[in-house]
Amino acid sequence: MLPDGLLRDLASRSPAELGELLALRSDAVRPGTASVADLAEALLSRAGLRRALDLLTRPELDAVERAAVLGGPDQPAARLPAGPPWDRLHRLALVHRDGDDLRLVPGLAEALGRYPAGLGRPHPVLAALAARLRGTAPEAPEDLPGPCTEDEVARWPAPAREVLERFRSHPVGALPDALRRLDPEADAAARPVDWLLAHGVLFPVDSRHVELPRETGLLLHRGDPWAGTPQEPPVASAARVPDRVRDNAAAAAVELLLRRTAALRAELRARPLTTLRSGGIGVRELRRLRSALGIEHAELVRLLGLGELSGLVRLDPDTSAWGPAPVPVEAADRTVQWQHLVRSWLASDVVPSAVGLPLADGSVIGVLTRGAHAPEAPAVRRALLEAHAELTARAPGGHGPEGVLALARWYRPRLARALDRWGPGMLTEAGELGLVGAGALTAAGRALAEGRPEDAARSVAEWLPAPSRTVLLQSDLTATATGYLAPDVAGALGRLADEEGHGPVLRHRFTERTLHRALDAGWTPPTILAWLEEHSRGPVPQALAYLVEEAGRAHGRIRITRADWVLTGDEDLLEALSRSPDLAGHRLRRPAPGVLVVGSGGAPAGRRPAARDGGLRELAAAVRATGTEPALDVVPADAGPAPGDPAPDPALLLEVPAPRQPVPSAEEVRDLLVRLTGRTGAPPAPDHPTDDPTDDPTDDPTVDLTDHPTDTGGAAPWDR
User: Which pairs count as long-range contacts for 65-71, CB under 8 Å and 24+ apart, including other chains?
Assistant: First the structure.
């Protein structure tokens, strides 16, 4: 049942205050909400309360925990006027006015989790649970032993007090055979853990874990476990970083990332990355890819993870191999490419830098596996950017990861564990994306932290130099681009020559094979020479011109056209080809001089054309055996566009991963405000399922007491 005080509080808010509440608690914007009661139900959902708690700073969370732990459900959280941090808690609808008091909303104490402020559950709850587990539950609750007092703790043996000190940060410890028989005669000096179990200080919660009651935990902290938490944001000093140095470092990182992404897709297009039967990528495959791209292992796994989260690299379910997504990403403007990568990075739950981190079972996270997925990743990235922006506003300059993480933990204390686990790697990823340059937050990073993605894209466009449309042609049959090439120029050059090297300077080499590939795609020697003259910084080297002319003379003396297969060309060559043993068993027809039709119906089973290319590869090999290079009217799938073909639409980029918690539009918020302030008596909203079931104590870190022996019929050490 909804409390009347909460309904009155919500009903008394102005449209501006309700709009602020819905902006902060966007999960409460639901289509069926039509009254204040419906809004209150949405605000009090377990999932909604947990997400709201994740928005609290350290002082605000301390205030809520203090009220929940020390107050109880019937006690007011604060008296009016409360001031900070209660003002923001009220704006978030985590507390409501009730006369002269502020009270926690129903369910907020449970949403804090099982161990608020690092304290265990109340003593009566644990005592009753332990009695049930041991089969000794008394008939009346008052028959259970009561919590210890401060005087009793002071009289305990020193070894027992040393064990309790281990429970200051967390109330759960791992203990084999936690349901062992109690031994009242246990020696506190030799077996302090058994002594604490026998005296009702620690209670078993299952067969492998024990828990310290909340009351005893408060005694350890002298009644105030929040005394040591910082009430002011920790702001570290900044290193001086000139704007030009910052922007140059960020621009170089963006250019390098985009070039490596294109190279990765090209390499996977030629040789997809196969997966192991057990999942993940094998060491041999990673070594091969690392050698092909010329980058370090850590850089490679982050690049693969970024390709996965952005959808530019996909797993083929039929072949279980990773390859490039069939979209013309490289044809898009570099700013558009960067924007897609960053938007995907902010929304995805994939953490590329997580590879190599330990898992609970003792293994480590593998490349392109589910272990690198973290539901809290988008919230952690947002917290890091906001903390970096706050640090920059308070102390302009460069900031190390420690300072950013410390401030992020203060602003989002409930994300502290995720920040410690994923944060350092995510800051490295932010540097590779150009959000941080030389340790300083860039204009693009600040714009993203403030929710201005279009401004971030404009900032990146200002850093990056204009694309070049010319290359340096040399007599060693190479083309060198000293800057970024326009996508259409780079695409055409990639058809005429093969890229070589992995340095900052793009370098291509022309060979007879690459020129034949271009001729198959529809180019001719005159169009190739015209393109080279147009895009060369100087005259076309004579050696390259000769190579183009020679490739044109050796290409197309016999032309393959698909009917079954139709070959046209010199009659003498076709006559020699018809007698080739490579075509033995095929039906051959000569409908006219200079024309040879090759059929497959009569071919032996072992010599029938492969289904994939219809026998084209076999037929081309037979032609080459006569000493000539065939021209293909059937263009291979990877031949690319012919000169003059329209460029692919850069807008055909992959969509950004949908966020786990969709953000309502401004129109949806306005419509809800109209319903709340202008309509009453609407039918109640349907029930919405909540997430986050009861917490499992084994999901949290446990106390490590391996140096305290216990008696389990022998010495059994504590474990995690």
Answer: 65/112, 65/116, 65/117, 65/226, 66/117, 66/226, 67/104, 68/104, 68/108, 68/109, 68/112, 68/116, 69/116, 69/117, 69/119, 69/214, 69/218, 71/104
Alpha helices of 213-372 — where are they, by DSSP H?
Answer: 214-220, 243-270, 283-293, 297-310, 334-347
Q: What is the mean pLDDT of the chain?
A: 85
- The candidate with the shortest Cα–Cα distance to 471, out of 458, 481, 461, 486, is 481
What pLDDT digit, counting tens, does each position of 104-118 carry?
999 999 999 999 999
What residues contact residue 623 under an 8 Å CB cut-off, 6+ apart?
Answer: 558, 560, 567, 577, 629, 630
pTM: 0.78
Number of alpha helices (DSSP H) and beta strands (DSSP E) in the chain: 28, 20
Enter the tokens of residue 483: 């800057």
Tell me the percentage of the chain whose pLDDT exceeds 90.
53
Provide DSSP, 105-148: PTTHHHHT-SSGGG----HHHHHHHHHHHHT---SSGGGSPPPP
Q: How confident is the model at residue 694 (pLDDT cuts 50, 70, 90)?
A: very low
Tokens 């077996």 belong to 191
Tokens of 95: 């507390």
| 630 has pLDDT over 90 | no
Q: What angle do CA 104, 110, 111 make, to 5 degrees?
A: 85
CB 665 within 8 A of CB 29: no
> What confidence score (pLDDT) does residue 594 get?
87
**For 14-51, what is each residue's pLDDT tens digit?**
999 999 999 999 989 988 888 999 999 999 999 999 99
pLDDT digits (tens, 9 = 90+) for 167-222: 988 899 999 889 988 888 888 888 899 999 988 899 999 999 999 999 999 998 88
Q: What DSSP state is assigned to residue 40?
A: H
User: Which residue type does 484 have?
Assistant: Y
Q: At what angle do helices 243-270 and 297-310 cross, to 10 degrees?
A: 80
Please state, in angstroms and rounded to a whole number, the distance separating the CA atoms of residues 370 and 349: 10
State in Å, rounded, how far the first CA of the chain is from the last one: 42
Bridge partners (DSSP) listed for residue 343? none
User: How confident is the model over 51-69, as pLDDT tens digits?
Assistant: 999 999 999 999 999 999 9
Instruction: State residue 606's pLDDT score.
Output: 42
pLDDT at res. 653:
54
Flag whether pLDDT at 564 surpasses 80: no
Joined tokens for residue 485: 């090439």
Q: What is d(CA 84, CA 96) in angstroms, rounded to the nearest whole number?
A: 14
DSSP state of 43: H
Four-CA torsion 139, 142, 147, 152, nearest 10 degrees: -110
Give me the torsion for CA of 30, 36, 37, 38, rounded to 10°. Answer: -10
Q: Which two tokens stand for residue 331?
A: 């044809």
Q: Where are the alpha helices (DSSP H) in 281-351?
A: 283-293, 297-310, 334-347
Quickly tell me which residue has 């935990």 as its tokens. Answer: 217
Radius of gyration of the chain measured on its C-alpha atoms: 35
| CA distance linking residue 714 with residue 577, whole number of Å | 87
Give residues with Cβ within 8 angstroms of 651, minimum separation 6. Answer: 332
Pull the structure tokens for residue 215. 């009351």
- Measured on CA atoms in the order 276, 281, 287, 288, is the torsion positive or negative? positive
Helix axes 542-553, 512-520, angle to 10 degrees: 50
Which residue is listed with tokens 């590869």? Answer: 617
Q: Is the pLDDT of residue 445 over 70?
A: yes
